[in-house]
Amino acid sequence: MQSNIIVTAVVVIYLLVMLLIGYLSSKKIESNTDFVVAGRRLGPLLMAGTLAATEIGGGSSLGVVQQGMESHGLSAAWYIITMGFAFVILTFLAPKFRAAMVKTVPEYFRRRYGKPSGIITSLIMFVPLIGLTAGQFIASSVILSTMLNLNYKTAVLIVGIVVTIYAIMGGLWSVTLTDFVQVFLIVIGMIIALPFGMNLAGGWDNVVANVPAETFDMFKGYNVMDVISLTIMYVATFTVGQEAVSRYYAARDGKAARQGSVLAAIVNFIYAFVPTLMGIIVLALINMGKFNAADFQDVGARYALPVLAMEAMPAVICGLLFAGIVSATMSSADSDLLGAGSIFANDIYKIVIKPSASDKEIMIVTRVTMAAVGVFATLIALFNTSSIVTILMFAFTLRAAGSFFPYVLGHYWKGASQAGTMASLIAGTIVVVYLEHVSKGNLFGLHFNQPIVPGLVAALIAFLIFSLVMPPKKQTTELAPEE
């Protein structure tokens, strides 16, 4: 009983600190630019912390532990390693992103390809952010409900309220500062937890002896094409996903953006094997009879890590680990919330609903939208039972397929046109939705585990053909000024 109180106290203190950071950050907000892109003053360390924390979320903590335990073994690490590959690739694009001096991806599309492109991009990117936020709310609530023996729905309400409040208060500046704390909590917390899990299993040799030999095959659950597809998916979605690319927009300069991306990659490479090994340890404990597979039947296999922590770790360490996992999911949720609010206020409200809106009014609308999305995502989380990783995968893919090439090539190719962009957006979205919900991955007799690859191919073909057939009136990569 006393240990549960200590665990609970540690996490409650963490949640209160997050709210305090949000409140203090709100004092630095004087304009919409401050709120959406943190005044463009992030250095490499803050960049790395917020990039890594944003992408290390529910899928890469609870989801990877579950995969490591159930089916993938050590190969589950690829889910996170490929994120690191994506950040390495983005180091070459980061200075271009920063130099554009935009606040959102749809703003880039609007000023590069015209108003219709901006509006369509806004809708394609706004809707998945709600799903992403809900996915992270689910992951955070899983931890809280297990740890505090709370009703799951009560935990969802706690998470939804805390994340929404501190994100609304300080915008990207508070999100960045909380991310910086959170990325260290999750990485260090998980690393500290490993020895306790191994000790419960009787040492590493016992772990190895009690799992199948193929558990340590790096290609047990992912083949080479899966690794390539995941990398492509992450590059595409980090490039056009507002929650990630806004960090590049917020960098102090192009050099800081590039350095931050490299450091974020290193964090991912280090962290990748930690939740994977935790999953393998749980599998060994089940096979040794120290855990019963029935322990997970009532709550689901995604609870593997919380169950292990409660059994194996001292109360304070357990509390730090739980705070770290909650922080991982919350740091992704707050970014998704801010991305949704930024896109709606800057690219839908300001452009479509009220073009005469002042800077202050846009900031207010951003906050109101974040509150609305927070409520809606909370409702989705209350009734959603889908796999965390599945939610993230589809949301990533849907928004990335059609917008990737117009966004990246638009920085380099003067011949990129509005017609090509519209064709790319439509083709990429149709192919992804068809593969995901109609054909279940089958296209022309071929099966695709990741719809992003054929989606990108279709989008690229449509983009090139229509840009060449219907070229822009003015050949330039420069952005039009905001109206």
From TrEMBL:
Entries under PROSITE patterns matching the protein: NA_SOLUT_SYMP_3
An example molecular function term from Gene Ontology annotations: transmembrane transporter activity
Alphabetized InterPro entries for the sequence: Na/Glc_symporter_sf, Na/solute_symporter, Sodium:Solute_Symporter
Residues annotated as transmembrane: 6-24, 45-64, 76-97, 118-143, 155-173, 180-201, 221-241, 262-286, 306-328, 421-439, 451-469
Location of this chain's protein in the cell: Membrane
Keyword line: Membrane, Transmembrane, Transmembrane helix, Transport
One GO CC term, this protein: plasma membrane
Residue ranges that the Swiss-Prot or TrEMBL entry lists as coiled coil: none
Pfam family, one: SSF
Record's bilayer topology term: Multi-pass membrane protein
PANTHER family for the chain: SODIUM-SOLUTE SYMPORTER-RELATED, SODIUM/PROLINE SYMPORTER-RELATED
Sequence similarity: Belongs to the sodium:solute symporter (SSF) (TC 2.A.21) family.
Name this protein carries in UniProt: Sodium/proline symporter
Taxonomic source organism: [Ruminococcus] torques
